[in-house]
Every structure is written in C-alpha cells, then in structure tokens.
Amino acid sequence: AEGETLSREELAGAVARLAHGDLESVRAACGQAVQRSGDAEGGEELWWILGCVAAGEERRQAWSRAVQVRPTFALGLLFRGAAAHDTGDLPAARADLDAALRCNPRLHWAYYRRGLLRRDAGDPAGADEDLRLAVQFAPHEWPERTEVDRLLSGR
What we know:
Elements (H helix, E strand, L loop, with lengths): L7 H12 L3 H15 L5 H11 L2 H14 L4 H13 L3 H14 L4 H13 L3 H14 L7 H9 L2
Helix pairs in contact: 1-2, 1-3, 2-3, 3-4, 4-5, 5-6, 5-7, 6-7, 7-8, 8-9
C-alpha cells in the first residue's frame, strides 16, 4: 500500500544485489519498493541506490528524490552534489556538499568533493583546507588518500 514503511530486508536485498553487480535486478527491486511505499521512511535509501545504478539526469533525479524524502540524508546530498559538480553546476554542487557536511560534519567524501570543487572554483586555500579535513576524517585505507596527498603537495 502507498506509504507503507520499507522493511530492512528489502533494503538489505537491494544492497546485496548491488554488491553482486546485478544492476537490472537492483533497478527492478528498488523501483517496485519505492512505487509501493511512496515516500515512507527508508525510501531515501532506495532512491539513493537507484541513483547509484542510473545514468545521466535519471541519476541526479533519484538522488534529489532521496533528499526530498529525507532532507538530512547526507549521502543523498553528497552524491547529488558530486553529480552537479561533474556536470559543471558549481553553485548547486556547493550547496549540496555544504548541506551534507552540516548533516554529517565527519563525512570525508564530502570534504574531498568540496575540496575538488573549490579548486575548480579558484579557491586553492579553501580546497586545501577541505582536502586536509577529508584526510583527517577518512579511514587509513581510504583509496583517495594518495591523490589528496598529491594535490596538497602541489605535484
């Protein structure tokens, strides 16, 4: 029924399908679940997953829907902001990345993406500040650590 709360099993199943690379199955399962549940609690995570398996504008629309369902969903804001940055919409990207960091001030990926955006926007000091924060909050094995070290060293 419309508005029905999503189960953790549905979400876990979608994540498992995603991990196995079964993208069509992910699209189908998440699509059915969000059609059935509307904007119920947990729907933001399914919209986020749908964005991860989509392309182009469909991707950004799914992440926008995730943020619509839960405006404080940091991952939705991060991914939508990254997509905006990738398409050159720097103001929208900055707004989303700032909002993601207000929701989760330790989200290292958001600092990383905002650092790249600030570099592109001609703010090297701000970029370096964000990149340092990304390293500070990232796990030791973070795959982007080498790239950030290179950017900070000016190489």
